[in-house]
Amino acid sequence: MALARESGGYVLQTDAMSVDLHRFRHVVRQARGCQDPLQAADLFERALGIWRGEPFPALDTPWINSLRSTLLGERLSVVLDRNDVALRVGRHSEVLVELTAAHAAHPLDERLAGQLMLAQYRSGRQADALDTYRQMRQRLADELGVDPGASLDQVHQQILSGDEQSPGRAPTPHLVVPDRPHSALLRRTTSFVGHTHEVARVIESMAEGPLVTLTGVGGVGKTRLALEVARREQDRFSDGVAICELAPLEHGAAVSHTIATALHLQQQQGLGIEESVIEYLRAREVLLVADNCEHVVEAVAQLLARIIQHCPKVAVLTTSRQPLAIDGERIVVVPPLTVDDATRLFADRARAGRPDFHLQDQPEGAVAEICRLVDCLPLAVELAAARMRMMSSTDVIRRLDTLGVLRGGARGSLPRQQSMSAAIDWSYQLLTQAEQALFLRLSVFAGSFDLDAAHGVCGSDGDVAEDTLDLLAGLVDKSMVVVRSVTGRTRYGILETLRAFGREHLREAGLTDTYAARHATYYTELAERAATGLHDSQEQDWVERMMPDYDNLRAAFERAMADTDTDLALRLVAALPELLGLRIGYEMAEWAERLITVTRPEHPLFATAVGVAARGAWAHGDYAHARSLAELAQRQVPGPGTARVAYPADVLADVTFFEGDSQWALDYWEGEVTRARADADPIRLVWTLYEVAICSGALGKPDYGLPAAQEAVTLADSTGNPTARSMAYFSLGYLLKRSEPVRATALFDQAAELAAAVQNFWHSGTALMSAAATRAVHGDPIEAARMFIEVLDHWDRVGDWFEQGAALRYITRLLLRLGADDDAAFLHCAFIKAGMPSPLRDEQLETLVDRLGANRFEAHRVSVSDSAAMVARARSSLHRFVTPRHDALTRPNGPHKRIS
Questions:
Q1: What is the distance in angstroms between the CA of the first residue and the CA of the last residue of the chain?
Q2: Does 191 share its domain with 305?
Q3: If you ran DSSP here, which 8-state letter would residue 254 be given?
Q4: What are the residue ranges of helices labelled H in 720-780?
Q5: CA atoms of 490 and 486, how far apart (whole Å)
Q6: How confident is the model over 844-891, as pLDDT tens digits?
Q7: For residue 496, which of 729, 222, 269, 784 has the smallest C-alpha distance?
């Protein structure tokens, strides 16, 4: 800037883009000329962010007042354009409050009234929308003597008729889940510096109320502070700490699923996912950390309000750029570090990259000056410290100044946000052109990724993986990408603040659709390769490779659906059930249900989608729906590459088996054995032989099924496939558990270990339960009690009430053997009141009544005993028997006679 003297006085000579009004008009022109409505909406928001306050507030002259009125009218015009675009892309809830206030300020503006009516209607407030029209019509008549114009009338008619085109819903965003276990998150990888006072305040606030929210600007260290508090306080929570990372989510509908995943919990039968979370936490002592809530704040607030109301032992710690605004919330505002703490953080991180770095060797006050220039924001400090590997502290100060960080950077945002944005942009500008291109492309990942994925999705034409690795190494060195180790494999991630920066710039470059589509295609093809790899000796390798990519698989599916690429979505769903269905759960069944509604029945993979949906319904105990779906697809052959667990006819056989017709199921599976032999498919043959053995055992014909089980073991061992071996060993143990209980127990133990090694939660759970049940009758009852505690916890997490019910039946008989007569009576009566058969045989029940006495036994008939109470009673009773003292007193013979 410079002052120049001219004939009429002085003129300030400056670049036009240094003036807010010119910058505002420049961005508005970009927005109005943009063809992408999402990008246009963001540009309008950016323009309005530049406009701060009323023009010339301290001046009051006719000329200034006229100019002020003109400028405010110009801004209102932009607001109206922004509202139109925001409504078009589904942001009605975001603009509703502002529209209400603007309508009150401009009560005769028909365009504004129409926008408010649409926002109200799309927010489920149809009555309010119609009332807004009624008031507007009355106001126009009273004050101007006119009727509403044609445009406002058209909006009114669309609302009255429920015209589906008028709401213009935006596509549903994808659902993501954290890929890192909370135990790893609580383990420090770098030192925790500063915020000592805030740690104490958070711990104090947690003692005062059930919910504490850490607020503050992005990059101020909210997440790190929350994890540090969780690490220090974890011993206070007997059921542990669950870390829920919400940053990857793009829609509030995914919040409940994401929290369930953090708890290692699956949706329970007969309950929605939100109810499943609440029921699981109701009696548990857990610290739940929900990180980065701001973009899904309404959904988070709704769920957490219910959790703190119904789960009295749960403490919740959240991080968000805004409070959740629910009862019981304590807010702790996280400030930047002090200069001294920021200086220590800078020195610590600089020394990590340059071991010879010492503060005393730097020019006096240089590091403190760097920290002040970035407002002592931890992320900005760490980014600046990373530059010390290639620059002096004096050079860093000079570079910060040239990028506008010194006094706030871009106008129109908060000072700390200015500094944070400038720090990220500065690090981005230091990248080579090729590194910049890769960094922006990497922002399409929903979570972490490996080198193959980075190259497959983001690699340039003609490059090989080593080229991508070189660029990735540069990004790691410059602190734009972090390295993570998951199950011993190297993966990479991007901090959420940096990811948001990358996505914004990728969108501005018009490349989001291109790389999001490449991302979806890559993960679909990877899932298809994994589906094949799961059927040989490399199953464990594929599981360890694919499980951390669950969030990326979800993102791929949602992208395919958003692009209406049904073929791609079907291919993904066809490949996933065997990978995820027996491990994380049947969430992909929800995807299949969505696909059924948009897929033609003649599509080659239609039967596959129906089969996946049917398998999900079966897993949740909805046998009627499972049967209906399976019969819908039974006449159609699933397409190539279909996961075996998705065959509709198989689901129908399983439904029939669990409904009690074991003979029909046996006949079906014997036919499938013949077909599997003809197809020379060893894994399918093991599966069908396993089913024949199980059906034979259920019919009381173990000798009939024994050849099938023995063949399954031999064949499974030859494949080296852990799941196949687990199933085969289990089937043989199932048939031998009465005639050779010691051998059967060993087989169950092997089956559980094999399934657990590949995270096959269903098979590991059933094998563990059978091992405990066999010990309870034929072996060490105290060891059985210990194992059944594990079984209860396992099925609790999985959310499988059918298997949990089976475990409780075994436990009832075990407690009778151990002499816990009151607990056994409680569980017996609970089963009877639930309309289910007693776990006890007549002679066992007679023994129980004799030992308790009739009056004491009858008292249990009137006790309250829902499923949660049954599990709690069983767990409490079992814990009494696994204490060292009780162990010594009861082993080996126990105080009562053995009842088998």
A1: 94
A2: yes
A3: G
A4: 722-736, 741-757, 761-778
A5: 7
A6: 999 999 998 988 988 888 776 678 889 999 999 999 998 654 443 333
A7: 222
CA distance 133 to 113: 7
Alpha-carbon 303 to chain mean position: 14
> Among all chains, which residue has been given the structure tokens 């028997």?
881
Residues 22, 23, 25, 31, Cα dihedral to 10°: 160
Cβ neighbour number for residue 422 with a 10 Å cutoff: 22
How far is residue 609 from each of residues 561, 596, 598, measured CA to CA in Å? 14, 6, 11
The helix/strand/coil state of 226 is helix
- Using CA atoms, how far residue 163 sits from 28, 111, 123, 166, 649, in Å, is 31, 19, 15, 6, 41
Q: Tell me the CB-side half-sphere exposure of residue 179, using CA atoms within 13 A.
A: 27
Q: Which of 159, 156, 177 is nearest to 167 (CA)?
A: 159
Q: CA–CA separation, 183 vs 181, rounded Å? A: 5
DSSP structure class, residue 581: I
Q: Which residues pair with 289 in a beta bridge?
A: 243, 317
The whole-angstrom separation of Cα 436 and Cα 188 is: 30
Number of domains in the chain: 3
Residue 419 lies in a domain: yes
Residue 164 CB neighbours (<10 A)? 9
Distance CA 274, CA 270 (A): 12
Quick one: 6 and 139 in the same domain? Answer: yes
Q: Is residue 890 part of a domain?
A: no
Q: 366 and 327 in one domain? A: no
Domain limit, last residue, from 394, 429, 464: 429
Among residues 382, 409, 429, the one where a domain terminates is 429
Look at residue 216 and tell me if it is in a domain.
Answer: yes
Domain interval for residue 365: 339-429
3-state SS class at 332: strand
pLDDT in tens, 66-75: 777 778 878 8
Q: Is the pTM value of this prediction over 0.85? A: no
Count Cβ neighbours within 10 Å for each residue of 67-91 and write b for 16 or more, e otherwise. ebeebeebbbebbbbbbbbbbbbbb
- Tell me the residue type at 666: L
Residue 305 and residue 226 share a domain:
yes
